[in-house]
Amino acid sequence: MKIYTRTGDSGETGLFGGQRVPKDDLRVHAYGTTDECNAAVGVARASGLDAGLDALLSEVQNQLFVVGADLATPGEHALVPRVSEAEIAFLEASIDQLEAELAPLRQFILPGGTSAAAHVHLARTICRRAERWVVSLIQHEDEDVNPQILIYLNRLSDFFFVAARAANARAAKPDVPWASPRTASS
Q: Where is the Cobalamin adenosyltransferase-like domain (predicted)?
């Protein structure tokens, strides 16, 4: 199988099932940004997370492939896995588990701390962008989108926030507090 096919040279790409769409189609933006998020998770995993967080993020990477496949496949197709309540439940359980080991958040924090935590925060912001693309896709009246995807991405960004805090806590590195201009000059 060759990596190049030449089928996208005219600015179109194929969805699963054969439909051709422009490469700037809302659906392509949505699954492309999901793929970008997955790559950011890979960078975070390569940045020195402990084994527990690495295992959680490994599962998230696999789930993000399901999100991408779901988004790249309009309509019904028996061979394509779909995002379900099970993936959302996994994220919620993971958030609850991680929050139980963290001190309560009493102020806004900036993305940072350890390199791994900063990369997880980056994945969070990319996830939020993917979520915005999915909202646009859903609002497009001709588009069929699994409603579980939007819930999943919303919960995933929360998971990333908590996972970034956990990465800092497990490395004994404090979160970076936001110093608002008012409190900084006082």
A: 3-166
pLDDT by residue for the chain (186 residues), tens digit each? 777 776 666 766 666 776 777 667 899 999 999 999 999 999 999 999 999 999 999 999 999 999 999 998 887 776 788 999 999 999 999 999 999 999 999 999 999 999 999 999 999 999 999 999 999 999 986 668 999 999 999 999 999 999 999 999 999 999 999 987 765 554
Q: How many CB atoms lie under 10 A from the CB of residue 96?
A: 10
Range of the domain at 62: 23-73+80-172
CA atoms within 13 A on the CB side of 122: 18
Flag whether the pTM goes above 0.70: yes
Collapse the DSSP code of 109 into the 3-class scheme (helix H, G, I; strand E, B; otherwise coil) and give the result.
strand
- DSSP symbols for 114-158: SHHHHHHHHHHHHHHHHHHHHHHHHHSTT----HHHHHHHHHHHH
Q: How far is 129 from 30, CA to CA, in rounded Å?
A: 8
Q: What are phi and psi of 11, to 5 degrees?
A: 90, 15
Q: Is residue 28 part of a domain?
A: yes
Q: Which residues fall within 8 angstroms of residue 62, CB to CB, at 6 or more apart?
A: none
Count: domains in the chain: 1
CATH of the domain at 84: 1.20.1200.10
Q: Give domain status of residue 124, yes or no.
A: yes
